[in-house]
Amino acid sequence: MASVSPAEKRRLLSETPFFAAFPPAQRDALAAHLTERSHADGDTVFLRGDESTSLMIVASGRVALRLTSPQGREILLAILEPGEIFGEMSLLDGRGRSADAVAFGPCRLLSLDRRDMLPVLQDSPEACIRLLELLSTRLRRTSDQLEGVALMTLPSRLARLLLTLSETHGTRRNAEGEVLLPLALSQRDLGQLIGASREKVNLQLGRWSAEGLLRRQDGALVICDTEGLADIADIGAP
Fold it and tell me: Is residue 194 part of a domain?
């Protein structure tokens, strides 16, 4: 991957939702402190417990956040897209990482150290509010995952996940409302996001395909009936 130029770093910050509201001069000052890292698919970005004080920005590609038990069982917490940031907890408290981060395909990351970010937070109430909003969003996402695993059936959890992915990554295909999910998520990945085995996810997807709720196309999923999935998810039609 080509190195990120100073101009591109400034542009990337301006297009990152977290930093977009910062004054341009403030963003440009932060961009000057960004350091670049590139990773191949499957590379470990960091492990839970690693010492670090930096916040990271996905410049290109995707990053998966996950937890791994001593027995090797994995829970996929999130898949981060370009423009999203992670590692903000270590930036704030200077403690070890709270989860593993792994490259989900080739990716390019930008890193901003705590010593460069804290002065901005100390001088800017707006920046603090933005960071609090980010932390709140992450906490709500985690709470929703825990609620799903503890209280919802597998079909409801899977339907909710597919609807969420359709809103964040989906492409509407036609007037009938079909939505293409272009993410290269395997059935194992889907299972890790909802706390289920690959086999059970495969079985449920097969049932929904037979019922006409979705279909497969060139390795991707197409949602044919969002209202039907919403009824299963029990969250109302989108």
Answer: yes
Number of domains making up the chain: 2
Element (H, E) at 115: helix 114-123
The distance in angstroms from the start CA to the end CA of the chain is: 39
Span 173-231, pLDDT tens digits: 665 678 888 666 788 888 888 878 889 999 999 999 999 999 888 777 889 998 899 89
- Cβ pair 87, 98 in contact under 8 A: no
Kindly report which listed range (58-67, 68-77, 153-162, 206-215) carries the lowest average pLDDT score.
68-77
For position 16, which CATH number holds? 2.60.120.10
**In this structure, are 137 and 30 located in the same domain?**
yes
Domain enclosing residue 93, as ranges: 6-149
